[in-house]
Amino acid sequence: MARILLTEDDASVRAFVKRALELDGHEITEAEDGGIALEILGERPEGFDLLLSDIMMPVMDGIALALSVARDHPGLAILLMTGFADQRERAFGLDSLVSDVVSKPFTLAEIRAAVGRALDGRSPTSRIA
Fold this sequence. Notes:
Blueprint: E1 3-7, H1 11-22, E2 27-31, H2 34-43, E3 50-54, H3 62-72, E4 77-82, H4 85-90, E5 100-103, H5 108-120
Parallel strand pairs: 1-2, 1-3, 3-4, 4-5
């Protein structure tokens, strides 16, 4: 299956998402913020199929991370998640770089489906609006 870099500052959300995606056989590498995610990507530049990142994080947020990743790793699929409507709006201009923005709270089935769509390169059922 896929190698996913999961970037989320909330440990309980990170653990939930990790368990959900491991059910589908994905290999998950965790990062607590965007700065750490960039360090991991620097060490393993070709090592991931998907970046799954929260938007609202300390040090480097998911939008800055997505912009950096899109510039430096153009083949890497990007999926964002957020619990804040205003953060969804901030991601509006990234729709050419990001597969989708998943709203929190989400169910196990919702996050697994969103990741599946991002990995398949299919258009998500709900685009950034």
